[in-house]
Amino acid sequence: MNEEVVFKKILDCSFKIHSVLGPGLLESAYEECLFYEIFNAGLIVEKQKPLPLIYNTVKLDTGYRIDLFVGNCVIVEVKSVEALADIHIAQILTYLKLSKCRLGLLANFNVLHLKDGIRRIIS
To answer: Which residue among 1, 44, 47, 111 has the highest number of C-beta atoms inside a 10 angstrom radius?
Structure first.
């Protein structure tokens, strides 16, 4: 499936969850709900997908985990913070680089209007 179609479906699921739950919950709650909605939308989704770091020829299992990996093409990082910071963007950019994916979604659910917490990240 085209990564743009996958991205749009993820956005639809995110807005649905935020309209029902609103801000103020833990990140883990939003992640579980988003996993559920994405799966029910018919997309392939992996939760807490391990992401190894390969340095030269050494594979290091450093504990990096992608919150949600959707359609084998989009990385989703779920946040529930007061405001997104540069480090959050750096994190998803690093995950995109390590996974060789091109498109990511950084979603902060702890906002009044979800459109203010959505960042589309392209590497």
So the answer is: 111
